[in-house]
Design a protein that fits this description.
Blueprint (H helix, E strand, L loop, with lengths): L8 E4 L2 E2 L2 E5 L2 E4 L9 E7 L5 E7 L6 E9 L5 E3 L9 E7 L4 E2 L13 E2 L3 E5 L2 E2 L1 E2 L3 E2 L7 E6 L7 E9 L2 E9 L1
Antiparallel strand pairs: 1-2, 1-5, 3-4, 5-6, 7-8, 7-9, 9-16, 10-11, 12-13, 12-17, 14-16, 15-16, 17-18
Amino acid sequence: MSADPSKMRVTVNGIDAPVLSMASNRLDVQAPWEISGAKALVRVTGPDGGYADTLVEIQSVVPALGGGLGILRPSGDFDMNPAAFAAGNVVVFLAEGLGRVEPPPKTGMAPERASLVTAEVTASVAGLPATIYPAMLAADRPGQYYVVLGIPPGVPAGGQPVRLAVNGIATERTFTFR
């Protein structure tokens, strides 16, 4: 396999799927917004024209919580990459696999305006319900979403789980709180 993702082509049910990154035995691609159904044929074509086909199951959501990008301050300032979060903070997290958005962007393109997640999204921190603002597709980060949470009062200091659920399918990751 070529080490250059630009030399690889991936299609899902015949629709081009943008290659986001590549490792020695892994390609990360953006699933085309246009696909539907329970299964899809994924074809990976190398620079020499050789290809491999795989039949995969399609899931509407497969949430994964990424890092905490920063804190939105009441002043409107954005504190990038703080050492820790605290109760009362409004925190922006990155996530993947949150599913369809409205309006849908063109596959491989950044959304032209806010594209909001259509699935039900809930969250908790240290087992306490968190305020969740509308999750949206990240215009500057292909294949990723912004999830904005209001951290509830009573979150203890130290490493605490942040749980994100989309249509009842959950993912969890530990973050540091002060």
